[in-house]
Structures are given as C-alpha cells and as structure tokens.
C-alpha cells in the first residue's frame, strides 16, 4: 500500500480535534507538566520553517510527557499587538484589528497542518479585549504598589515620519523607515520601577534551570557594578558633587571631574559659572545625539566650567569640572571623577583638553594609552604599595571615616519605559485630572493629577480612529479620538482626559503564560487554584533574541505580581531553552527579499507534516543555527516511507532477539534524548532501529507496535495510522510510553552488513564475539549473498569484526 501522507495526516488531525485529545483539565492528583513556547506575532507573511523548529521540538516533548501519564499543558496563542499591524493598516487602509484577526486564523491553520498537539481551547491573543482587560488590571496593581510613575524621558523622534522610535528601530542612528535624521524629544511617559528589581532578578537565577549562556546574558544585561559613591566639595557654597566610581582606589589620580549635560548642578550654579552660555550651547548640541552616539563618542567634546571647581577629599587638591556627553545622566550619579591614567575615556578627554595625567598604578605605558591592568599603587599616599582589592577597601574605609562617601552598587538596567505613541496597543487605564492634581500636590504625592480607572471600568477599550499617525506635536494617535479622550474624573467627577499613550508590545507577552492556565475566565486573570496547580512553566522555549528583554520583563512582571500577593511563587519559568535559527539553503538568513524562504505549507503538501517535523528535529543540535537542506529533508522522507513499508511486512509473532534488542535500545535512547532536548539524535536512533532489521522477511507486529510508540512524538500521523492498522485500540496519543529492559540491551548478538563488491546485499545477525572465520562462514551462507557470488571467483574477503563482511569477486 502506498504511503498517502496527505490523507493520513488530515484524517488524524480531524480525529484528534474531534476527540479533543489535547485539551487538558486541572486534575488534582495527576502530575502536571507545563510546556511553553513563545507565542508568535501573527505577521502577514505567515509561518516559515524557522518557526516550525521550536514548535515541533516542544510538541515532541509534550507528546512524550503525555504518554508518560503527565497532565500536559501545551497552549498556543498570539502576541498580536504591535507596530507592524498598524503600519500595514496605514498602508492598506484596513483596520489593525481585522488584519490581526485574519493573520491569527492563517497562523492557526498552518499550525494545525503540522499536527501540533496544542490545547486550542486555551487560545489567547493579547489584542483581544478579554485578554488586555487583565493586562490593564495588572498595570493598575503595579500603579497601586507604587511601581508605575510618569517620568520625563527622552525619546527618538523622527520628524518626517512623525514617529517615536525605540533604539532597536534606529539604523545607524537614523530612522529605519525613511532614513532621515532622528532628534531627541522629551515627553512625560509611564515607566515601571524595574531597576528596583535588579538584585532580585540576579538572585532568582540561582533557583532556575536556564542554560549558562542565558543566565550570563541576563546578568550582563542587568549590569551590576560594585564601587563607591564619593563626595567632592564644591568651591561654591557648601554643596558637593557626588560621583559613582568602581575604582575609588584611583582617587589620587583624579585630575578633573566630568558631569553629564543634564546634570542639575549646571543650572543650580548657572550664576557662578561665568561661561554658562557656552555650557548651554553644549547642552543643546548633545541633546541632538542619541545615547548610542554619545556612548560610542569617538571624538571627545566638552566645556570646562569657569568659576566653579571641586576639592578632592583625599588630598585637598582643587580639581576642574567639565561638562561632557560621554557621561550619562541615567547611570550612577551622572558625574564622574576622571582618572585619565587608568580610564581610556578619561584619557582621550585629557589629551584633547590638556589635563594632567597622574599615574597611580604601576604598569603599562601611559604615554600611549590608559593602563587598566593591575599593579601596585603609587603616588597614592596611604595606599602606596597596596594591590587593587586592598586599596579599594581602604579607600572606602577612608570615605566612611571621613564622611565623604560609602560603598555603592549600581545597575545598568534601566526602569522600563512603558509608554508608546502608537495606536495598536493596550490603552493605559489612567486619567489626568487638574482638580485632583491640586489635592495630590498638597499631599506631596507622586504622579500628581493621575487617577487610576476603577477596575469595574476595565477593559478600557481602544476607540476606533481613522488615522493611526501621531499628531504633529508628537502625541499618540489616540489623542485624535477626542470623545474618548475627554472623560469624567473617576475620583472627583470633574473634567478629565485619558492617557493617550499605549503600552509597549512587551506588556502582553509578560504574563501570557498565566492566562493560559485559565484562558476563558472573565472574573479573574486566572483562578488562584489553577495558577497554583499549573505553577511554574516546566520548560520554556523561545528565540535567542528574547533571552534578555522579554525574559527579564516577564520575570520582573511575575516578581511584581508575587510581591503584590497575586501569585504564590516568585519565578515564572523553571527552565528555559533557545532554538537556533534555520537559514536559507544558500546559507544566508531566510528572507523574502533574498527569495530563499521555505514555506512549511509547500513542504507539508509535497512531503507531509511528519517529514517536515522529523526533518526539523533531525536537522542539527537544537541550539545551533543551520541552513535548510532539501536533499537531507528528502532523506528523512525516505525513512518514513521505509517505516511504512516495514509495517506492511508484519506478522503476528513474538519478537526475535534482534527485534527485541533494537526496540529496547531505541526506547531507551529516544526517551533519554527527548528529555535532554537532543532531538536530532532521536531521529537517528529511530533510523538505526530499523536498520538493525533484515531488509526482507517478516517483522513481528509487536516490534512495530512498540516502534510506532517511540516514533509517535516525532511523526505522530504515520504512527497513529500504523498503530490502527496493527489493531491497536485507542489513540496512540493515550498509550503509555513503553519501558525498556536493560538486560535486553546487552550485546549478545550484533547485526552485520554483508556486501559483494562494496554493495550491501544482506544484514545478518551473529554472536557479538564471533571470530573472523565464523563471520565469513555465516556471511557466505546467506542466500542473498550466494545469488551474487555463485560461480564467481572470490579474490578477497574483508572482515571488520562486529561490523561487516565484504566479498570482492571478479
Ligand atoms: C574612576 C575610575 C577610574 C573609573 C578608573 C573607572 C576606571 P561600570 O563598570 O560600567 O559601572 N562612570 C560612572 N558613572 C558614569 C556615567 N554616568 N557615565 C559614564 N561613565 C560613568 O563603570 C563605572 C565607571 O564608569 C566609574 O568608575 C566611572 O569611572 C565611570 F581607572 O571612576 B570610574
Ligand atoms: Zn479628579
């Protein structure tokens, strides 16, 4: 019989769906397993084969865990807010909601064609009101906890496109859309106090099982620095300038100070600074640069403050102060003590502005560049002769004893800028009221004037508008919906206006794993007992590009919920893995413009979903980037055809020794390899299993029934079909994962290949310890071999013990 994969696959997809095979309920005494995939943004171009890789891999895990008797939660949904849908709507005149919903259903169809065992009864999309009601609700909880505040923040603004752009949306500092210049604009925006969670986010990594690489990336992103805050007295008044330094031990080498252009001391001392107009001009100029440009800062620039200087608390030396944009206001104190001999940025600045360079650590050649290495301290008063750590400790001790500083820790990670000037996002459920503002101000409250919507008014729905562009003033497109914007203050009943910024795309994706636990609940984001039953995600799989931001946002969000008493455990994901990318067959990144995109629908149509699944599992170690390769995909297809043919050869008889051993080995290997995410070797083990059988003669039906159980996670359709043909009752999906018998794995016999002139003619089974002579004798006795050598001269016999025999004939 022919392997009609298209019919077979459709048949089983229908059966599973009708039987609701993958829908799960919370069952108190059944052990759970929560297997989570990052949900896709439903773009107009649909799924490509790169998406399929993690989907298949996690489906393999979910199917095996199910067969092992676990209650498996394996959900899917859509991260469906975002700029792309909005841009597409602007281009085509459609509505982002309609475009998004259409894309969602295309994706869903594509996913169903792959035979993925998702529980679609729990489908979510972040842009549906039933979902974002709870995103808004969580924002309100954060606001109540004091975690949300309005702050003036600079944003990248493209005057041509009238769009605010994130740093990721810049290309070499220019707008990625029109290539035009981008300016810095300040705007009051919602911000979440994520920086306060820096240490918790580092500490939490000790209690989760992420790969070392993922942990390292998270730690780097948080960017913890340990050092000291040191106070320098100012010549003017009794004010001081505090700097953050990781190297207080180098303080005897300070020859100037630098403050950021935004530092408040500048304005404060504008009366004392005699060249303040130069300072102001410099402030304006640096405001035009993006943070990236400032950090790269190839050519140092700055202005020396005339009329004000600082005093080094360690030696009383007078130190000039500069303003320069290589110092950022957002980090530390926005001021640095410059040690040009040992910090390269300070060195470049000193060279340009003719400042003194005082070496305080032995080593290097400071005629050429700053020396950042270790060495003994020199020119450092009481620290002379000390090494790095000792002198840091004694410098901090000096600060504490003389009340001029203390130990300090800083984190590079910033608070989370939570406002976007876009339409297609969650409305922020806040209202601005002038009347309440006066009350708040009198109380000295933060966010004066901002009033939270009562929870009963959620969801605050996105109003319909026709123009999705921000206004000329840079206000978000929602500002155009005047009727919606003007409202009553929920506290005092006076005239008020709604927030017109929306939430970032990262909001909805920060808690979706919780919603899956109780996706259709209209009373709560999820019922507590369900949240407690499903608990932490056991295995979370997603892209490498999400190991920093998304994973940190979600962990922060969860910890904030935990601190607010909303969830009972403080880490959302107990383990995390990341898949590698699939590139084009030409070795380049798969992209439409390069014309090298492989569409999964085409592969499924031509070779079947099982082939695509097995190939994507087989393609390479899961975390490796790898190019698509059609001929190796066809190789996998041939393997499935072989499975199909072998199933046709079955007889009702017990397994023989060869079959038993091949099967037990495969059960062991496949099981272990799925559990450790070595999916590529799962497929090779299955191939080896069949290779161990003779290519002709009958095969035990028991062998085949066992074989399709281990094949099932990878190629579920063909295995269900064979299972049914062999008279297996129930779906294979619900069969128990087979166990293996260790004693069956001991090598008493081995299969060896017998060839004639290098062409394989038979596989025979012999004792593992058979001698070369015995091997040759048995090989010669094979009928298949005899056919080819009968009446011919054997000129040579090559025997590799335990492996093969080759007869060379004339
Ligand atoms: C003196 C010094 C001497 C420094 C030396 C370094 C080496 P990380 O490790 O990144 O935390 N710094 C502090 N605040 C800054 C700001 N807002 N913008 C730019 N630079 C800033 O780096 C901390 C070091 O970066 C600090 O230690 C400070 O320079 C500088 F041999 O102080 B250091
Ligand atoms: Zn009010």
Task: Give the topology, please.
Elements lengths: L4 H14 L13 E6 L11 H19 L3 E3 L3 E2 L4 H10 L3 H18 L10 E2 L3 H16 L3 E11 L4 E3 L4 E2 L2 E2 L7 E10 L5 H6 L5 E2 L1 H11 L1 E11 L5 E6 L10 E4 L4 H5 L7 H12 L3 H6 L6 E9 L6 E6 L11 E4 L5 H10 L34 H14 L3 E7 L4 E2 L12 E3 L1 H10 L6 E3 L29 H4 E3 L6 E4 L13 H4 L12 H7 L4 E5 L5 H15 L11 E5 L2 E2 L16 H8 L1 H10 L7 E2 L2 H18 L2 E2 L5 H19 L3 H13 L7 E2 H11 L4 H10 L23 E8 L2 E9 L4 H9 L2 H7 L4 E7 L3 E6 L1
Parallel strand pairs: 1-2, 1-23, 3-4, 10-24, 13-15, 23-24, 25-26, 27-28, 29-32
Antiparallel strand pairs: 5-6, 5-9, 7-8, 9-18, 11-12, 11-14, 11-17, 13-16, 14-15, 19-20, 19-22, 21-22, 29-30, 31-32
Helix pairs in contact: 1-24, 2-19, 3-4, 18-19, 19-20, 19-22, 21-22, 21-23, 23-24
What does this structure look like?
This protein has 810 residues and is α/β, with parallel strands linked by helices. It contains 26 helices and 32 strands. The strands form nine sheets. Strands 11, 12, 13, 14, 15, 16 and 17 form a seven-stranded mixed sheet that branches. β14 and β15 form a beta hairpin. α19 crosses α22, α21 runs antiparallel to α22 and α21 packs parallel to α23. The chain is globular, with a radius of gyration of 34 Å. The structure holds ligand ANZ and zinc ion. The site of ligand ANZ has 17 residues, from β12 and β16.
């Amino acid at each position: 019989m022919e392997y009609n994969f298209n019919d077979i696959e459709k048949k089983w997809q229908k059966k599973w769906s009708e039987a609701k095979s993958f829908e799960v309920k919370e069952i108190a005494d059944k052990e759970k397993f929560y297997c989570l995939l990052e949900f896709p943004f439903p773009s107009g171009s649909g799924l490509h084969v790169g998406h399929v890789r993690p989907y298949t891999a996690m489906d393999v895990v979910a199917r095996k865990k199910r067969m092992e008797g676990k209650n498996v939660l394996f959900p899917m949904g859509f991260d469906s807010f975002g700029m792309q849908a909005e841009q597409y709507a602007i281009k085509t005149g459609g509505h982002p909601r309609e475009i998004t919903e259409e894309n969602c259903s295309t994706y869903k169809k594509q996913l169903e064609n792959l035979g993925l065992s998702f529980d679609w009864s729990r489908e979510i999309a972040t842009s549906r009101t039933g979902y974002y009601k709870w995103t808004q609700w969580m924002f309100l909880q954060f606001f109540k906890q004091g975690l949300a505040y309005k702050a003036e923040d600079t944003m990248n603004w493209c005057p041509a496109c009238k769009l605010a752009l994130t740093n990721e949306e810049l290309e070499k500092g220019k707008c990625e859309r029109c290539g035009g210049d981008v300016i810095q604009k300040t705007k009051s925006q919602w911000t979440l106090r994520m920086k306060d969670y820096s240490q918790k986010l580092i500490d939490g990594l000790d209690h989760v099982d992420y790969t070392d690489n993922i942990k390292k990336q998270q730690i780097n992103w948080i960017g913890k620095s340990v050092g000291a805050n040191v106070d320098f007295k100012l010549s003017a008044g009794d004010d001081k300038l505090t700097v953050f330094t990781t190297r207080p031990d180098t303080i005897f080498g300070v020859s100037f100070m630098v403050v950021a252009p935004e530092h408040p001391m500048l304005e404060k001392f504008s009366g004392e600074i005699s060249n303040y107009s130069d300072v102001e001009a410099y402030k304006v100029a640096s405001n035009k640069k993006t943070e990236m440009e400032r950090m790269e800062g190839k050519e140092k620039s700055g202005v020396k403050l005339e009329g004000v200087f600082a005093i080094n608390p360690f030696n009383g030396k007078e130190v000039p102060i500069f303003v320069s944009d290589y110092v950022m206001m957002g980090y530390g104190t926005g001021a640095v003590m410059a040690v040009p001999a040992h910090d390269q940025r300070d060195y470049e600045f000193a060279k340009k502005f003719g400042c003194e360079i005082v070496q305080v650590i032995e080593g290097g050649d400071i005629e050429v560049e700053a020396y950042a290495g270790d060495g003994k301290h020199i020119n450092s008063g009481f620290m002379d002769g000390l090494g790095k750590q000792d002198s840091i400790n004694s410098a901090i001790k000096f600060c504490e004893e003389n009340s001029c500083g203390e130990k300090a820790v800083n984190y590079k990670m910033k608070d989370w800028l939570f406002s976007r000037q876009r339409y297609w996002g969650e409305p922020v459920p806040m209202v601005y009221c002038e009347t309440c503002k006066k009350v708040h101000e009198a109380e000295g409250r933060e966010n004066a004037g901002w009033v939270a919507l009562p929870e009963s008014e959620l969801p605050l729905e996105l109003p319909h508008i026709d123009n999705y562009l921000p206004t000329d003033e840079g206000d978000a497109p929602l500002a155009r919906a005047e009727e919606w914007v003007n409202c009553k203050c929920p506290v005092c009943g006076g005239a008020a206006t709604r927030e017109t910024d929306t939430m970032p795309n990262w909001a909805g994706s920060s808690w979706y794993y919780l919603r899956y636990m109780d996706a259709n609940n209209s009373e709560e984001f999820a019922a507590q007992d369900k949240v407690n039953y499903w608990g932490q995600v056991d295995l979370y799989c997603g892209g490498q590009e999400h190991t920093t931001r998304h994973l940190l946002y979600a962990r922060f969000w969860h910890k904030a919920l935990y601190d607010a008493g909303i969830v009972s455990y403080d880490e959302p994901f107990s383990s995390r893995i990341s898949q590698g990318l699939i590139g084009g067959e030409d070795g380049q990144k798969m992209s439409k413009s390069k014309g090298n995109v492989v569409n999964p629908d085409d592969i499924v149509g031509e070779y079947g979903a099982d082939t695509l699944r097995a190939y994507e599992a087989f393609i390479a170690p899961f975390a490796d980037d790898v190019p698509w390769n059609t001929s190796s995909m066809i190789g996998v297809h041939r393997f499935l055809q072989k499975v199909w043919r072998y199933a046709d050869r079955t007889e009702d008889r017990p397994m023989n020794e060869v079959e038993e051993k091949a099967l037990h080995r495969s059960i062991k290997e496949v099981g272990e390899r799925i559990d450790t995410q070595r999916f590529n070797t799962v497929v090779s083990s299955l191939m080896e299993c069949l290779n161990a059988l003779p290519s002709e003669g009958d095969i035990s039906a028991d062998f085949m029934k066992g074989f399709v159980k281990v094949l099932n996670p990878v190629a579920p359709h063909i295995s269900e079909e064979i299972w049914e043909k062999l008279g297996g009752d129930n779906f294979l999906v619900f069969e128990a994962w087979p166990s293996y018998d260790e004693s069956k794995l001991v090598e008493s016999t081995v299969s060896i290949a017998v060839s004639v002139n290098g062409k394989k003619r038979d596989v025979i089974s012999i004792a593992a310890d058979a001698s070369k002579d015995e091997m040759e004798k048995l090989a010669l006795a094979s009928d298949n071999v005899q056919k080819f050598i009968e009446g011919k001269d054997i000129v040579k016999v090559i025997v590799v013990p335990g492996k093969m025999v080759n007869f060379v004939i004339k």
